[in-house]
Design goal:
single chain; TIM Barrel; nine-stranded mixed beta sheet; eight-stranded parallel beta barrel; 12 helices; binds pyridoxal-5'-phosphate; binds lysine; lysine biosynthesis; Diaminopimelate decarboxylase
Length: 443
């Protein structure tokens, strides 16, 4: 195999190459061959890219932060046993937002002590489970605190408080979370009462503050501002006698490049900016350095994955556009229809061919808006071509649905020329598993 070049290093996984046949190769595996072997649509995760992202977060914190630190993988981006196990091998803990994500992390071998449970409407069962496995519960509201108080009667529970800092970022409206009008967290005017409640409730061990201001952010300053703002409360917590109050969790949110024009900061720049803000603020306020936590999701798993599809039908509307249809769509990637998200694509079997056609890539769902890419340049696609979309690791599989009763795709992790299944494709039995046909309706 003659390895040549990758189509665009900034959009493909790190290990991507083009072989002598003009096929895309990821993790040493021919993507066309993977599609043939495992079927399409297929999520293909490049182990190298995922490990490299984890390494960059961990090393940047070590380089720029003189205090203790911990990176948590925001598993909402993609909760999967193998992915949780892999990031944990790289030294990461887990941010979970449901008992399902908590259970996945635990079964992947992540100790409860390295799991933080979020959620704006946790059930009592979720809180009790988190307490049982010694996870930290991130209290989002007063109901959480009341439930925690009841759950902690036997054993103390570690509690972090989520704050809505009133700091905004420029991203899609649906994925902003730091502004005052957000469903998440305690607004600042309540924080004094929350800390006083925790000081008066010794079975709840208040460990610190959390804020997350939004996702797919290309800005640096608001993330530093959040860290500074939260630190102002640490002296107040100390004055209230909260002796274990020493963790500052700045959330996640770093954006990634989906299309050529995207220009996100690097992981190192993001971490450096936050670390410097924390160190300066601690010096100015004569505070001890807290344990610094961050919770990236998209920037870890997003760039590591591509989705492979098979091209099917074509429709040309003369003078308007050409639609080409693939065998997946909004059910395996709901981001374009939900957020107007944009992606980049290639034909994995024709990487050296000229991109001489402008086409719109439609999914196979009964929905006009089921379009994954609009007016993109590709070699003129033909039935049977293997179309790949880049940067699909975050919020694709984790938000996938069975709309139109399509089974959700399989996923493989690739590296060193090997591929391993990390998610089996759903079949017709899976789709019908939960349906019940009452006796009186049977004919
Ligand atoms: C509380 C919390 N932490 C972390 C994240 C991860 O964000 P991202 O995937 O943008 O890094 C999110 C999602 O936006 C979140 O809600
Ligand atoms: N699902 C969103 C991100 C949500 C982040 C979770 N708070 C996306 O695809 O961009």
């Amino acid at each position: 195999m003659v390895a040549a070049r990758s189509p665009n290093q900034s959009l493909t996984p790190l290990s991507a190459l083009i072989d002598g046949q003009g096929h895309l190769v990821v993790g040493g595996c021919d993507v066309v061959e993977l599609a043939r072997r495992f079927g399409t649509p297929l999520y293909i995760v490049d182990e190298l890219t995922l490990r490299e992202g984890c390494r960059q977060y961990v090393e940047a914190l070590e380089r720029y932060y003189p205090g203790p630190s911990q990176v948590l993988y925001a598993s909402k981006a993609w909760s999967n046993l193998a992915i949780c196990a892999l990031v944990h091998l790289c030294g990461l803990g887990i941010d979970a937002v449901s008992e399902g994500e908590l259970q996945t992390a635990l079964l992947a071998g992540v100790p409860g002590q390295q799991i933080y449970l979020h959620g704006n409407n946790k059930s009592e069962a979720e809180i009790r489970r988190a307490a049982t496995v010694r996870a930290t519960v991130v209290a989002d509201n007063w109901l959480d605190l009341q439930t925690l108080q009841a759950a902690a009667s036997d054993e103390p529970v570690r509690v972090m408080v989520r704050v809505t800092p009133g700091i905004d970022i420029h991203t899609h409206d649906y994925i902003r979370t730091g502004h005052v009008d957000s469903k998440f967290g305690f607004n600042l005017e309540d924080l004094g009462d929350v800390l006083a409640f925790l000081a008066a409730t010794p079975q709840l061990v208040a460990v610190g503050l959390h804020a997350h201001i939004g996702s797919q952010s290309f800005e640096l300053a608001p993330h530093a501002d959040v860290a500074k703002l939260l630190l102002e409360w640490f002296a107040k917590a100390a004055a209230l006698g909260l002796a274990d109050f020493n963790e500052l969790n700045v959330g996640g949110g770093l954006g990634i490049r989906y299309i050529e024009a995207d220009d996100p900061p690097s992981i190192e720049q993001w971490v450096q900016t936050i670390c410097e803000a924390v160190v300066q603020a601690c010096e100015a306020q004569r505070l001890p350095l807290p344990k610094l936590l961050c919770e990236p999701g998209r920037s870890l798993v997003g760039p590591a994955c591509i989705t492979a599809y098979t091209v099917g039908s074509t429709k040309t509307v003369p003078g308007v556009r050409t639609y080409i249809a693939i065998d997946g769509g909004m059910s395996d990637n709901p981001r374009p229809i939900t957020y107007g998200a944009r992606y980049s694509a290639a034909l994995a079997n024709r990487m050296n061919d000229e991109r001489s056609a402008t086409v719109t890539v439609a999914g196979k769902h009964c929905e006009s808006g089921d379009v994954l890419l609009r007016d993109v340049d590709l070699p003129p696609p033909e039935k049977g071509d293997c179309l790949v979309i880049f940067g699909t690791g975050a919020y694709n599989c984790s938000m996938a649905s069975n709309y139109n009763r399509l089974g959700r795709p399989a996923a493989v992790v690739v590296g060193g020329g090997d591929s391993s299944l990390i998610l089996r494709r759903e079949d017709l039995d899976d789709l019908l598993r939960c349906d019940c046909l009452p006796l009186r309706l049977r004919t």
